């Protein structure tokens, strides 16, 4: 089997870089993986054409890398290859994903990382079959980590931003020390935020550093910066457990959970996104329900967080039991097993070539294909202006312009800024959308 993919040559987000590099490494062991690297979205049409000349069976498309543009180009140019579409998140690219749906073909294969992500996708449409293929771990690397001596510390691992809950941990750390005795919080993640950059701390990190100083916590709370590979795994292994108080809207998997569990760390996490798919209370960690959350505010449950962190700092025997459970609970996420599952799925699909039919689409808007959307999704799509109200022949030019602008900034700055914020302003429908999309209220 041959699978082709188009990859961006510029630096990408740390989470995407981590996920995709390992995924491609293991996928390349099972299939013939062909890559075309591009530096600008104007090159995508010719890149796909070159891959087709090599008789690929599927074109792998990442929803964060030119999904809508790639689907439009396939229609416009009558390319005949089915797509393997990886959906990482939907919220931040809700409108772009909606515009892409009418362009999906029956023989395209859509994969998502979690049952939670599948539920969110199916809120948008019931027309596409979605398969759960989770992110995995490189257990070959994890097995090389030597046993580490435990420190009196817990850790936070991930993107350093407000919606990951880190602000609350720092605000409460003096109360945890007062209740459980001196303990250290190690914060692992690139200081710039989304990107592979420790040279200049983000405004958010600078604000947190100032708050740490104000609370006289410099001895107990420390930013470790970006750590990768064995260094990151060893640092995790020296900690007692991982804290993951996230309420990030875009999140659908949280790879840090399984990284920590594989290193023998129990995880204390918020009951948000897919966290409960990995963590079982008292077995390999604790799930703490949010007290409340809305489109504008969140209460992540201070009392419960302080209680459980303090409890496990004072009850190391319970932590030791959960350490053993932690490792065994994530064996199914070994990448070799996950890739086997994906290849088996692709092998069972009856791959047929696809006809272009561009004339049926060029003068229509995505919103015209009403049968592709669920009733509530259609309601919100009609209310909010966006690319789903633009005709496809104009949309391809807009997408090219949008991506070119992003690509140009990427080359200048060495980073890829996001331009997919769902809502820029407060409006009367934002809260209704949030309740429907995240809280199953309608």
What is the structural class? alpha/beta
Instruction: Give the strand content.
Output: 5-15%
CATH topology of the largest domain: Rossmann fold
CATH architecture assignment name of the largest domain: 3-Layer(aba) Sandwich
Number of helices: 16
- Give the helices and strands as they follow along the chain: EHEHEHEHEHEHEHEHEHEHEEEEHHHHHH
Mean pLDDT comes to 87
- Main β-sheet, spatial strand arrangement: 2-1-3-4-5-6
- Please tell me the total number of domains: 2
Low-pLDDT runs: 404-426
Q: How would a textbook summarize the main sheet?
A: 6 strands, parallel
Describe the fold and architecture:
The chain is α/β, with parallel strands linked by helices and 442 residues long. The protein has helices spanning 14-30, 44-52, 67-77, 94-100, 115-124, 139-142, 166-180, 203-214, 229-238, 255-262, 302-314, 316-329, 335-348, 375-383, 392-413, 430-439; strands at residues 2-8, 32-38, 58-62, 83-86, 109-112, 130-132, 153-157, 184-188, 221-225, 242-244, 267-270, 285-288, 292-293, 298-299. The radius of gyration is 23 Å and the shape is globular. The chain starts with a strand and ends with a helix.
Give short descriptive properties of this protein.
6-stranded parallel β-sheet, 2 domains, alpha/beta, 3-stranded parallel β-sheet, 16 helices, Rossmann fold, 14 strands, 442 residues, 14% strand
């Amino acid at each position: 089997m041959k699978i082709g993919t188009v990859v961006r040559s510029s630096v990408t987000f740390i989470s995407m870089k981590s996920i995709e590099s390992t995924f491609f490494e293991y996928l390349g062991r099972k299939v013939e993986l062909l890559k075309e690297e591009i530096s600008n979205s104007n090159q995508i049409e010719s890149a796909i054409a070159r891959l087709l000349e090599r008789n690929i069976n599927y074109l792998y498309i990442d929803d964060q890398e030119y999904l809508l543009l790639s689907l439009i180009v396939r229609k416009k140019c009558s390319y005949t290859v089915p797509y393997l579409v990886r959906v990482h998140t939907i919220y931040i690219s809700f409108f772009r994903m909606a515009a892409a749906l009418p362009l999906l073909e029956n023989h395209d294969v859509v994969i998502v990382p979690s049952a939670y992500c599948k539920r969110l996708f199916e809120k948008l449409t019931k027309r596409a079959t979605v398969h759960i293929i989770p992110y995995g771990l490189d257990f070959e690397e994890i097995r090389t980590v030597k046993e580490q001596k435990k420190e009196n510390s817990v850790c936070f691992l991930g993107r350093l931003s407000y919606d990951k809950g880190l602000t609350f941990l720092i605000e409460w750390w003096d109360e945890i020390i007062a209740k459980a005795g001196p303990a250290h919080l190690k914060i692992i993640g690139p200081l710039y935020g989304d990107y592979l950059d420790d040279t200049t701390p983000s405004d958010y990190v600078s604000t947190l550093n100032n708050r740490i100083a104000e609370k006289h916590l410099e001895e107990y709370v420390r930013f470790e910066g970006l750590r990768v590979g064995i260094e990151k795994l060893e640092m995790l292994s020296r900690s007692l457990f991982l804290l993951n108080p996230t309420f990030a809207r875009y999140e659908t998997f949280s790879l840090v959970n399984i990284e920590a569990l594989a290193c023998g760390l129990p995880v204390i996490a918020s009951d948000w996104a897919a966290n409960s798919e990995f963590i079982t209370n008292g077995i390999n960690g604790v799930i703490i329900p949010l007290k409340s959350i809305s489109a504008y505010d969140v209460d992540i449950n201070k009392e419960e967080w302080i209680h459980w962190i303090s409890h496990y700092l004072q009850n190391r025997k319970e932590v030791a039991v959960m350490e053993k459970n932690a490792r065994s609970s994530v064996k199914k996420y070994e990448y070799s097993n996950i890739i086997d599952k994906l290849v088996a799925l692709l092998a069972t699909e009856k791959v047929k070539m696809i006809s272009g039919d561009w004339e049926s689409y060029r003068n229509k808007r995505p919103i015209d294909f009403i049968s592709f959307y669920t009733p509530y999704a259609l309601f919100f799509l009609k209310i909010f202006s966006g690319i789903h109200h633009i005709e496809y022949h104009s949309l391809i030019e807009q997408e090219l312009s949008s991506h070119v602008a992003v690509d140009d900034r990427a080359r200048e700055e060495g980073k890829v800024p996001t331009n997919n914020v769902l809502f820029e302003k407060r409006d009367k429908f934002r809260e209704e959308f949030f309740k429907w999309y995240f809280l199953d209220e309608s």
